[in-house]
Specification:
Elements (H helix, E strand, L loop, with lengths): L9 H10 L19 E6 L19 H5 L10 E3 L7 E3 L2 E6 L5 E6 L13 H13 L10 E7 L2 E6 L7 H5 L6 H4 L19 E7 L2 E6 L12 E6 L3 H10 L4 E2 L6 H4 L8 E6 L4 E6 L9 H10 L2 H8 L35 H10 L3 E3 L2 E3 L7 E5 L5 H18 L2 E5 L3 H10 L4 E5 L7 H8 L2 H4 L16 H12 L3 H18 L2 E6 L2 E6 L3 E2 L18 H7 L1 E2 L3
Parallel strand pairs: 1-10, 1-11, 16-17
Antiparallel strand pairs: 2-3, 4-5, 5-7, 6-7, 8-9, 9-10, 11-20, 12-20, 13-18, 13-19, 14-15, 21-22
């Protein structure tokens, strides 16, 4: 197992220092004078409504700051966990972080010399305050931290949790730290817009309007001189509008799905335009309702799994934005190579129509005039659904429906409700099959938790579940997921994960069909140093916690 107990020490801290240029001042004032110069325009395709109200509260995920990602340049985390590359942890506001053996306690050394953007010093008190704020305000606990205590211990901070945080290290470490001297006066941190955003990050807000948000690099940033003087954040109504802006150079950095990205983006300026789908540990799955026919029959699930064309999905639905999903465990490669059980290392998905038909025949299925008939004598019919407008997902279910009809003779239909209806359907179980992503992290636990954890069924509210939408209920899988999450050593985790992979392969609780990369587009006309397939120090998604890390690693082109 690659993920291990992290003790970030002097050598790692030196690496962080190397990310930033040196020579910062320390007066804490706002302005662009500390930067090398130039600007970057960052954009999203979520519509003008995002800019109707200024919300800089980093705990409101739908607010302007988090939706556009500019909050990432203002509020910083203790450390950043890389979901690609080597899954390394990079210290940020902490100069060192160390977990105990069972990951129930985190010891943090606050970085010295850090100042808030209003000039006041950042201290251990701010860290304790932030985590205690989350503890006493459950609505802010977006990562399900289950913190039991946050206390200062000499020059360190000790965070204690009710359960192991091995599988949620990123959720713990990447909490945005807020200033106590400002937030202690906020009456309702779940709703306050925090118009005056005070952070430790390299930027402050210069202006906010319905036309966009402008950030200026500030003096006194602990990481040194910001290489970009100004950041401009824009919203477009849809992917088409944003794509045109990327093609023309109006926008420099974005995160959208682009059909035929090579032709429609990269080839517009092949020397500078880059499209990268970072292959994180998050496959796309056909989530099947295991409580309803025909997917309540494992034989039918196995048969469908054997005829899905993953190569076609990668090429036609995902536009080759990420690699084809090949391993039968559903774990994306090469990111997840080290986690795949030895018995499945060389086991790849193959299309086996005759084998699938034999599985069905052995289970009592027959065919009549080419149509598949179930053991009770009824034609097999079901509907795949995904929201209208989600072009890659709709194309994906159309491909699967066609494959199943042509190979197995089942009547596979496609429905495209609006997004709100779709979310309601999968939450309440009013569906048979849907193409859906899984959670991601620096290990595959999230993949299997999303489709195999029976605990979500016990936590259902008014019949609605928050995960495991397929309602797969296997006590052994649920116990193994808990065992993995709470294990105190790598060998125990490996043993639990190997067993989970076997259940996934044998019982097919969901049908993994493709990778789900974190997409990003950028150009190198003005700045270089971006993450890429060749240098996977982070994803290039401008809305992720690592966006500030990416920004501080940039260099003016030609230097």
């Amino acid at each position: 197992m690659r993920l291990r107990k992290y003790l970030i020490t002097a050598s790692a801290i030196a690496a962080v220092s190397a990310i930033a240029l040196t020579g910062c001042s320390s007066n804490g004032s706002s302005g662009a004078s500390s930067a090398s110069g130039g600007s970057l325009t960052v954009a999203k395709p979520d519509g003008a409504a995002i800019l109707a109200t200024q919300i800089n509260n980093p705990f409101i995920s739908t607010g302007s700051g988090m939706s556009l990602g500019y909050d990432r340049m203002i509020y910083e985390p203790l450390a950043i966990v890389n979901p690609v590359g080597k899954n390394e942890t990079t210290p940020w506001l902490a100069s060192k972080v160390e977990w105990n053996s069972d990951y129930t306690q985190l010891t943090v050394t606050p970085r010295k010399g850090v100042k808030w953007s209003d000039g006041k010093p950042f201290t251990a008190d701010d860290i304790v305050f932030t985590y205690e704020l989350i503890k006493k305000t459950p609505a802010l606990d977006l990562g399900g931290l289950k913190l039991s205590a946050a206390k200062e211990d000499g020059d360190k901070v000790v965070l204690t949790f009710d359960e192991s945080k091995f599988v949620k290290q990123g959720d713990v470490l990447q909490v945005p730290i807020v200033p106590e001297h400002q937030w202690k006066g906020i009456a309702d941190p779940t709703k306050d817009a925090v118009k005056n955003a005070i952070g430790t990050g390299p930027y402050t807000i210069k202006s906010f309007s319905s036309q966009g948000v402008v950030l200026n690099a500030r003096d006194g940033y602990w990481g040194g001189k910001a290489p970009v003087a100004q950041l401009k954040y824009l919203e477009y109504n849809d992917n088409t509008g944003l794509l045109r802006a990327l093609q023309s150079g109006e926008t420099d950095w974005a995160q959208i799905f682009i059909t035929d990205y090579q032709k429609n983006y990269v080839d517009k300026d092949p020397k500078h335009n880059v499209f990268w789908g970072a292959n994180v540990l998050s496959p796309d799955m056909i989530v099947v309702n295991t409580t309803k026919a025909p997917f309540n029959d494992v034989a039918f699930r196995k048969a469908v799994n054997m005829v899905v064309d993953r190569k076609a999905h990668a090429e036609k639905a995902r536009g080759n934005a990420g690699p084809e999903l090949t391993n039968v465990t559903g774990i994306p490669q090469p990111t997840g190579d080290q986690y795949i059980a030895s018995e499945y290392k060389d086991k790849s998905f193959t299309i086996d129509v005759e084998g699938a038909k034999k599985v069905l025949s052995d289970a009592g299925y027959t065919w009549k005039s080419g149509a598949l008939i179930d053991p009770s004598g009824n034609p097999v019919s079901f509907t795949l659904q995904d929201p209208q407008g989600w072009n890659d997902y709709v194309t994906g279910i159309q491909l699967v429906a066609t494959q199943i009809k042509s190979t197995l003779g089942a009547d596979a239909k496609v429905a495209t409700p609006d997004a709100d209806t779709w979310f309601a359907n999968i939450g309440s179980g009013d569906f048979q099959a849907a193409l859906h992503w899984t959670g991601s992290g620096s290990n595959p636990w999230h993949i299997y938790d999303d489709v195999m954890n029976g605990s979500y069924l016990q936590q259902a509210a008014d019949g609605k579940v928050s995960d495991n939408f397929g309602r797969y209920d296997n006590p052994e899988a649920t116990a193994l997921l808990k065992e993995y999450a709470q294990a105190s050593d790598d060998s125990a985790r490996t043993e639990a994960l190997n067993k989970l992979q076997k259940i996934f392969v044998d019982d097919v609780p969901a049908i993994a069909i493709g990778t789900h990369p974190q997409l990003a587009q950028y150009n190198t006309r003005k700045f270089t140093g971006w993450p890429s397939e060749q240098d996977q120090y982070a994803t290039a998604d401008p809305t992720q916690p690592s966006a500030v890390q990416v920004l501080m690693k940039l260099k003016p082109a030609g230097k």
